[in-house]
Amino acid sequence: MKRLITFILISTVSILGFSQSVFMTRNGQVSFFSKTQMENIEGTNNEVTSMIDTSKGDIVFAVLVKSFRFEKALMEEHFNENYLESTKFPKATFQGKFTNTQSINFTKDGTYTATVEGDLTMHGVKQRQTATGTITVKNGKISAVSTFTIKLADYKIERPSLVADKISETIEIRVNCQYEPKS
Amino acid sequence: MKMLDEETEKDKKPDYATATFKTTRLINGHSIENVAAGVLDFRISHRFGYVNGGAYELWGLDEASMRLGFDYGLTRWWMIGVGRSTYQKQYDGFTKIKLLRQSSGSRSMPITLSAVGTIMYKSLKFDDPTRENYYTSNLYYSGQLLIARKFSEGISLQLMPTIVHYNLVPTEEDPNDLLSVGVGGRVKLSKRVSLNLEYYYQLPDYKFSGTTNSLAIGFDIETGGHVFQLYCTNSTGMTERTYINETTGNFFKGDIRLGFTISRVFTIKKPKV
Questions:
Q1: A18 has a pLDDT exceeding 50
Q2: How far apart (Å, rounded) are the C-alpha atoms in residues B200 and B219?
Q3: CATH number of B20-267
Q4: Share of chain A above pLDDT 70, in %
Q5: What pLDDT does A12 receive?
Q6: Beta carbons of B218 and B231 less than 8 angstroms apart
Q7: Which of A17, A97, B170, B180 shows its CA 20 to 30 Å from the CA of B99?
Q8: A90-136 pLDDT, tens per residue?
Q9: Interface residue A180 vs chain B (CB under 8 A)
Q10: How far is the alpha carbon of B36 from chain A, nearest alpha carbon, in Å?
Q11: Domains, chain A, ordered by start
Q12: At residue B79, what are phi and psi to the nearest 5 degrees?
């Protein structure tokens, strides 16, 4: 009995201690836009896994490339087959840190401007990437919104001349995640 | 990051093989690919004459036969289509259902399996209008199982056991049910071009005499919303009964037709994102 109580106590404390600093989502949204005069291409992924460790100021993302959905089925096929080569490189990841942790209070409700810097890996290429966004803390939950741009060439994603006027050189990426304390 | 990896490990989903072939036809016949739900595929196919017709026939280019077709994806696993061929003034309609999907990961399935059913109607006038003719005499049915596996990014193979039923056959000795087995495959030459091969073997006791087995070799060339298929074949028709069971050309003696298909897809119903 005594051991059981100790066990419950320890596990409760550890859960509480844990949940205060690590926040997580499994259905975060990452979408991208390619805008040209010929055609707009948009892909959305609603199955993004991401975590924030507020004590360390870490933020990480894992995105399954195959889970991007498109308006046109053929776009999705070509995105996977020809551009991101998702069989070879199934996952895109971001591993970064908040660079202005001192101005974000994760324990107090409010809206904060955040800057994040880290390594974005996709199509097998790792690149240093910075992004600014907004962190909103409400009732112990965190939401993060950010928009930034990347260059396809940086990630060795080829744009064949035949379709060059349909695919933009720079791609806008939008992130929208609602985090909950990790239990 | 390590913690995130552990988390993503947990919700592993089956990893389905996609794009086993570039389009819904291997060359003459069906591949296991379907058009996506809500997508209309407009296909124009051409066959020229035999290349051994020589310069007088401009190596077959003077003669052309074609098929116009519309295919539509009802769901992710069910598509239908209709077509009209100039050859024998033929109409055809088919339905194709995907029964199994090749996958790895949390659910493992080595092959993709599809079933295709086709009805063909020859609207050509009867040879002998004086005798009693039934319109059912011009109806033909075919059933196919398509078994395919994507072995690697570049290599896919497919097996097609086929039965074709004729209501009316040329002679009394000819069987009404014709059996054949097709084999085919593709090798990707680049991201947008693949080399395809397709061959139908007719079982000796279940074929018409004087016919040859259908052989086709060609390229799939993909450009954005289009797929071009460019090929050589000894078959004339573009429906199951005509290319599998009524081919008479000998490929290796130069009875080869050049052919091409243009496929253009239109998204009719947008999927929910």
A1: no
A2: 18
A3: 2.40.160.40
A4: 89
A5: 52
A6: yes
A7: B180
A8: 999 999 999 998 889 998 899 999 999 999 999 999 999 999 999 99
A9: no
A10: 6
A11: 22-181 (2.40.128.110)
A12: -130, 155
| CB-CB contact of B47 with B238 (8 Å) | yes
A29-39 pLDDT, tens digit each: 999 999 988 88
Distance from CA of B28 to the nearest CA of A (A): 22
Q: What is the pLDDT of residues B178-220, one digit of tens each?
A: 999 999 999 999 988 999 999 999 999 999 999 999 999 999 9
Q: Does B7 touch chain A (CB under 8 A)?
A: yes
CB contact under 8 A, A60 and B1: yes
Size of interface A-B (CB pairs under 8 A): 66
Chain A residues with CB inside 8 Å of B223's CB? 162-163
Q: Give me the pLDDT at residue B1, please.
A: 63
**CB spacing of A74 vs B1 below 8 angstroms:** no
The verdict on B223 touching A (C-beta cutoff 8 Å) is: yes
Low-confidence residues in chain B, pLDDT < 50 = none
Domain ranges of chain B: 20-267
Say whether residue A71 is in contact with chain B using an 8 A CB cutoff.
yes
Q: Do A62 and B36 touch (CB under 8 A)?
A: no
Contact call for A81 and B4, based on CB within 8 A? no
B225 vs A contacts (CB less than 8 Å): 72, 74
